[in-house]
Structure formats: C-alpha cells, structure tokens
C-alpha cells in the first residue's frame, strides 16, 4: 500500500555534514518544493553533495540528484542522477510509467535511451527516502520492517529496512529520541556487509535522519544533521 507524501512541508530543506573517518569530507542538502509536473502536484526534491577541504583536493565530488515525486501516490515520475566523483561520471534521467510498470532510461552523456520493465511501486534513491518518511508511525516502529525496490542506474535493487530499536542521539541542536534503522544492502561492491549502513531518524512524524553511518570497503562515512528549515512538525530537542 503506497502512501501519500504527507509528512513533508513545501520548502523543507535538510543539510548534512559528511565525515570520512576523522576528515571533514563534505556536505549534502535535500530541498523539497511543490511543483506541477505532468499535470499533477509533485514534490521536486533536489539533492546536492560536494566534497570539501583536503578531501576535495584528492577526490572531487560534485553530485546532483533530482526526483519528481507524485504527492498523491508517493511514487517518482522523473529522476535525475548527475554525478561526478573523482574519475567516475554518470548522468542519467529516468522517466517512470507506473501504470504499465515500465521506465525509459536516458544516458545524457552518450544521448542513448533504453526501455526497461520494472515492478510495482518502484522507487528511486531520493523518492525512497521520502516514501520512508511518509510511513505511519503507528506501524513503522521498533520491530517492524519494510521491503522496497529501488532503481539505481540501470538495475532494480531490493532493499529491506528494519527498525531495530530506539536511542537518544546527540546532535548540534541537543539530544533527541531516534529510531534506529538498519537497511539490508548488497555487500561486496561498496559496503563491508549487508548490514553496513545504520540510520537514526527522529522518533516522531517527521522521521528526519539525524545521523547515517556507513561501513565501506575502505574506511567509513558518517552524515550528521547540520541544519534544517521548514520541517512540518516541531523537533523535540532536549
């Protein structure tokens, strides 16, 4: 059952500071703004990530993601992944047709397009995050799990998220109660294990991530909430 994007406020912006080991590696922002797309209300969510400081000197990252998410269904209509990470370069745009479970993937670098068959309820990397945040907090609680299929580049990746507990997390704004979520991901390509990522999201209707940890094949990454603007519900920092 797919839900509406009901827990997001127009104009919401979340900012994160990213660390690679002890290094201040960069920042990321997520901005959600309501637009009319394909004659229907959507959130246009823009995600930007950049490396900074000493890390940028030897590994330059300039990533832009966009997802147009249908507010009524919570499903993506259009997805952009335009990334430059060191010598790695990808620029894909995806158009989803959920009625017949197909999509068109366009490679903007070589100007080619391919058609793919997908599955019901397919999400992209950005829309999946907002779909998660629209879960009913009465059902998305400790002990619950959620299966989700995510479109990444030119493949469908099945994920399972489990809420494993609650924890008070320290942030720059104070302490706040969080749900601990473990996404079960593919190991061997980037992550050390299938449980290499841990997310802490506010234990309230916002479900805003305040910390994300990832154990990589080489080193570890941590993203921490650095700023927030125009969230729908008050955040109860202590």
UniProtKB/TrEMBL annotation:
Classification via InterPro entries = DUF3108 (IPR021457)
**Pfam (any one):** DUF3108
This protein is called what?
Answer: DUF3108 domain-containing protein
> Whose protein is this, by species?
Cloacibacterium rupense
């Amino acid at each position: 059952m797919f839900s509406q994007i009901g827990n997001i406020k127009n104009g919401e912006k979340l900012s994160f500071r990213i660390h690679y080991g002890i290094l201040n590696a960069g920042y990321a922002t997520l901005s959600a703004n309501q637009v009319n797309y394909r004659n229907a209300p959507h959130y246009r969510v823009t995600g930007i990530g950049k490396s900074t400081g000493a890390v940028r000197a030897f590994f330059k990252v300039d990533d832009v993601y966009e997802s147009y998410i249908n507010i009524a269904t919570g499903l993506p209509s259009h997805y952009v992944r335009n990334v430059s990470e060191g010598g790695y370069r990808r620029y894909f745009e995806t158009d989803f047709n959920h009625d017949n479970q197909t999509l068109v993937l366009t490679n903007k670098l070589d100007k080619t397009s391919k058609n793919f068959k997908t599955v019901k309820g397919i999400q992209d990397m950005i829309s999946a995050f907002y779909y998660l945040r629209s879960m009913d907090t009465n059902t998305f609680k400790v002990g619950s799990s959620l299966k989700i299929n995510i479109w990444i580049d030119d493949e469908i990746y099945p994920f399972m998220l489990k809420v494993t507990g609650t924890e008070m997390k320290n942030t720059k704004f104070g302490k706040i109660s969080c749900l601990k979520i473990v996404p079960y991901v593919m190991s061997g390509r980037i992550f050390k294990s299938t449980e290499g990522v841990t997310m802490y999201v506010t234990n309230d209707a916002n479900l805003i991530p305040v910390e994300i940890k990832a154990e990589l094949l080489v080193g570890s990454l941590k993203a921490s909430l650095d700023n927030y603007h125009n969230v729908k519900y008050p955040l109860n920092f202590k």
